[in-house]
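call fold(seq) -> tokens
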Amino acid sequence: MALPPLKLEKISSSSELYKELLIKADISIDGVNYDPTALRKLEEVDHQEQVHGGFEMDLETHVGTEFPSGFVLPHGLKSPFKWSRRSNYSVGYENGRFVLLHKGNSLFPITFFKEPKYYRLKSSDGTPFNKIATFVQDSNLSVFYSNECSYKEKGEDCLFCNANATRDTYGEHEGIQWKNPRQAAEAIKAAYDEGIADHVTITGGIISERREIEYYQDVAEAIKQATGLDDFNGTAVIAAPLDLSNIDRLKEVGYRTIAMNIELWDKNIYQTICPGKANNSGGWDHWKKATEYAVGVFGFGRVRSNIVAGLEPKAKTLEGVEWFTSHGIVCLPGPWCPNPGSALEGHRTPEPAWHLDLSHKAYLLHKKAGITYDQVHDASNNDLAISRDIWKIEEGLI
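ret:
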């Protein structure tokens, strides 16, 4: 696979955006700390707070301490706030503005994500919308309808996943509950009406196939009724169904895109890291088959399958990206975070330069296959990823 490397020594001096991307990559992998004064000052400023509807992505848990969801760098790149007290980076407050510091030295000013107006509203049953639909920036919403996974009951959780642990840690404190279709539809309508979102991802932990498909159908019907939109630009994230006709049902009910995340391309590593997926839903081969089938239903560029980057050799991950993209499937690997509460907590993900190079090569494979950024946006709820930043920089989208 003759893909050129991303030469860090070149880009670090050729583009202000790439300079910032190098810093963002460091923060995305190793996290960011904070100065207590900055956190107190932030309470006085309109900002979007973290909500743990799905996963804890900080490198440490922090029940009772509220953190911002993310911040904007000077040239427009957006970075999630991932707390780690061990990081060399920190958020400070100097001369009336928030700044990013590295080893105590000020780098540049930053601004924090603004809280959407719909976050201050509630559903008809009194549930705050920010507990139902998370605004993920760049016009994306994410409804994590259930942050529990049935694989836990069998002792088959994916080793990198902390969905169940996140529910146990934050569920009661933050009031995170199962989202019913009406709640989801009302929150999505409010965000769409505000004009900040044009795409919604419906996702959650693994549940029984029949229950999962019925839930997604009910949500789609509720969204269409609430918004009046037949095409509400929704992505259904599901386990690969044993009955492939269930994929057709999700298309028929109104979803524009579908996602079935294979997680790893190396089948042997997959068996160890993802025992639940390997032993259920037909296993690795069936997940692959289901994504290929879905392209025939949803169309080229309208199917997604994620790979968690850093748990297998880079060449193996790129082999998977090349297979998916050549079949019209979006596959932009996201850096593995050793999440607190996961079985791999305390392990180390590869260094930022490794992830940057992988993301650059994945971008090139998507371009080679003819997959567009609009298709990537519609199939995913994470336009903040490093791979998307490379796309935005190279395509002049930022």
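DSSP finds 14 helices and 16 strands in the chain.
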